[in-house]
Amino acid sequence: MLLVWRRQRLLRRGNVLASAFSSSGANTDSDAEISENTVAAAPKYDHVRKLIVGLGNPGDKFVNTRHNIGFMAVNHFLHTYISKVTGQQLELQHEASSHGNVTRFRVGFQQNAPDKDYVYPIDDLVNRSSKRAKDRTLKEGVPHEEVNVALLLPTTYMNCSGTAVRGFMQTHRWRLKKNPLSLNRQDELLVVTDDVALPFGECRFKAKGGPGGQNGIRDIIKCVGTERFARLRVGVGAPHWFVGGNTGAPAGTAMDKHVLGRFNGDEQEAMPDLLNYTNELLRLYLHRGVAQATTYANSMGLQRFMKQYAEHYRLRTLTSIMPLPPVPVLVSQKDLPRAVAFLVLGYAAVAWLVLQMDDYFAADDQDETFNFPKIGIFVSIYTALMVIWRFYEHGTYILYEILWACNVSLFLVVMGLYLSKPFLMVTVSGDQLLWYIDALSFVLQGKFITGAMKYLTYPENRSFSKTFFATHHIWFLPVCLYVTNGHGGMHGSSFVASSILTTALAAFCRMTTPFEVRVPGSDHVIYLNVNGAYEFWKDIDIPLLHLLDHHHPLLYLPFLAIVGNFVANGFPHILVLGIALGLQFSPLLNH
């Protein structure tokens, strides 16, 4: 009786949907043919248990890297589709016996699953392929109308993922079916993983087989004792690897750096669509099985999905319709004269601008005769070593990066010391306050609260030069305060001057330097200037910094200048001025 009642309820709901979607169901004949070939009448099996494992590496330094696309896809599936369908804000909880983060729930097949980001209610890919396919689903249903689902994100690192899967299966008495393609009540396992042999965004199901060079899959096969489990492979390969029929990375590519690196600008733009696409493929897998999900993954692809369905998932905003960033350029030694020319020109322009601002933003009683030669020599040598070392270690492209933010601040400090302009010492004080907070939280708790220091943990930044020459974030502000105390450098309008400098420099960089470059020999993408600033600031856990899209320069440049300087300079100034007044020092607040 219960089964009949549920079936009647499904039919009643489906009839309303069929009429509502009659206008949108007139798709191409090819779509109808796909659905006719793949939607087959199948027996119903209640209470099927399916385990979906997302592969990746734990820890902040691996967040949003290519190797962690499995983590990203499963997390997105849980917090968007599953949470909406179940009506619960489900969260992953650490389970020691499973060596990973786990959540379990029961989910039913949805013909009309609303989501706050959807423009209108949505069916799965089969029902949307044609009206005939949807009518057939309404008539015959799906193989698995109700599924007991478990999601597992191993915390054992990629190469030991099998330990987590085996622990979960032993704890929950999981028994895998011998044939992953069969539709029955036996337990199933699906592993979501990255695949460098597929271009970015291409997704393929695989019912069984060897590891294919993926160490996480290899360890799972070893630990569970079988290759008979399904995989959803999400492509993270570089598109230019596959031009002209090539099927893999070029010789000499540092594969570990590629998979442990973060996605470039184009890929980040497409990431919301890719995660929505994996959502739909996982929905097909849960209720219709591996075979039908495979057919749709092979016949559709991300580009076709984006063309047909992307607007159904998220409302179009001003920033979402901006043009994509240009393709990363390959910078070589031939570009050295150009890079040096723009570096010199940029620093000359900054020097001229700050001298013009001296009449407007310097304190009236600024000391024009102060002299700190030892500090000037130290900062000069430090800056020169930073440029030389980074150029030696990274190559020509690093000269473009020297034009940005804290690197220029070192130059301005030297300029302020030798030209007796103490107001310059605090005009570009950087993000010292955030670094102090992060350094203290790392010592006490082992993590970065604000995220300001997080970029040093990324694989591409693990070098002596990156770490050593980042220390100026710690000692820079105390030196500036020591120099400017009693000399007219610490005053409120330095915030305004800093905003003007940041905007001018960002505009110069955006107009004259590449948006992002591809590092010779490693295929690693470096984000430069405005884009690089966005890459840095987006790691900082301050929601205000993420309101605007960095691909819209006319909006983002002043936004970065004002908000970035308020966070970087405004708070430190307020704090230091308060301490100075409390201790009855003499900072000059003449403006």
TrEMBL record:
<feature type="transmembrane region" description="Helical">
    <location>
        <begin position="433"/>
        <end position="456"/>
    </location>
</feature>
<feature type="transmembrane region" description="Helical">
    <location>
        <begin position="468"/>
        <end position="484"/>
    </location>
</feature>
<dbReference type="InterPro" id="IPR036416">
    <property type="entry name" value="Pept_tRNA_hydro_sf"/>
</dbReference>
<dbReference type="GO" id="GO:0004045">
    <property type="term" value="F:peptidyl-tRNA hydrolase activity"/>
</dbReference>
<feature type="transmembrane region" description="Helical">
    <location>
        <begin position="339"/>
        <end position="355"/>
    </location>
</feature>
<protein>
    <recommendedName>
        <fullName>peptidyl-tRNA hydrolase</fullName>
        <ecNumber>3.1.1.29</ecNumber>
    </recommendedName>
</protein>
<keyword id="KW-0812">Transmembrane</keyword>
<comment type="similarity">
    <text>Belongs to the PTH family.</text>
</comment>
<keyword id="KW-0378">Hydrolase</keyword>
<dbReference type="GO" id="GO:0000049">
    <property type="term" value="F:tRNA binding"/>
</dbReference>
<keyword id="KW-1133">Transmembrane helix</keyword>
<feature type="transmembrane region" description="Helical">
    <location>
        <begin position="399"/>
        <end position="421"/>
    </location>
</feature>
<dbReference type="InterPro" id="IPR001328">
    <property type="entry name" value="Pept_tRNA_hydro"/>
</dbReference>
<keyword id="KW-0472">Membrane</keyword>
<feature type="transmembrane region" description="Helical">
    <location>
        <begin position="375"/>
        <end position="392"/>
    </location>
</feature>
<feature type="transmembrane region" description="Helical">
    <location>
        <begin position="554"/>
        <end position="581"/>
    </location>
</feature>
<dbReference type="InterPro" id="IPR018171">
    <property type="entry name" value="Pept_tRNA_hydro_CS"/>
</dbReference>
<dbReference type="Pfam" id="PF01195">
    <property type="entry name" value="Pept_tRNA_hydro"/>
</dbReference>
<keyword id="KW-0694">RNA-binding</keyword>
<keyword id="KW-0820">tRNA-binding</keyword>
